[in-house]
């Protein structure tokens, strides 16, 4: 996997890919249409942020590249790459418990706060992606 040079794109399987952690300056794409929703991505080496219809979806510090980002009623899945470990926050359902998997290995359960945000740390090495799966219990 590598950075997303166009900053955001729809993949052949219907998922989203976004982010470019190699940029020195902030870059963004607004009003990217995907399945009837409008997405906005802001990305560079320090942060990657995704919004859908003006609402928070994903954020990483430092910046990351995300591929095959998919959301269902009970699951969020994506592959992530970065140049160093990242703190990732995703928007989920308020006050629910989730199980988190990295590369198929359960790393523990977490509960979202009242605003539905779940934060996790992912160990990253440049050039190697990590598959993240978050499943509602």
Structure description:
This protein is mainly beta and 137 residues long. It has a single domain (8-136), classed as Immunoglobulin-like, CATH 2.60.40. The chain has strands at residues 8-10, 16-18, 27-34, 37-44, 47-52, 55-61, 65-71, 75-81, 86-91, 97-102, 105-111, 117-122, 130-136. It has a seven-stranded antiparallel β-sheet with strand order 1-2-7-8-13-10-11, with no helix packed on it. Strands 3-4-5-6-9-12 form a six-stranded antiparallel β-sheet, with no helix packed on it. The chain starts with 7 loop residues before the first strand and ends with a strand.
How do the strands and helices of this protein lay out in sequence?
Blueprint: E1 8-10, E2 16-18, E3 27-34, E4 37-44, E5 47-52, E6 55-61, E7 65-71, E8 75-81, E9 86-91, E10 97-102, E11 105-111, E12 117-122, E13 130-136
Antiparallel strand pairs: 1-2, 2-7, 3-4, 4-5, 5-6, 6-9, 7-8, 8-13, 9-12, 10-11, 10-13
> What is the helix tally?
0
What's the helical proportion of residues?
A: under 10%
Uncertain segments are none
The value of Rg in angstroms is 14 Å
Proportion of beta-strand residues: over 45%
The assigned structural class equals mainly beta
For the record, the CATH class is Mainly Beta
Quick overview of this protein structure:
The protein contains no helices and 13 strands. The chain has strands at residues 8-10, 16-18, 27-34, 37-44, 47-52, 55-61, 65-71, 75-81, 86-91, 97-102, 105-111, 117-122, 130-136.
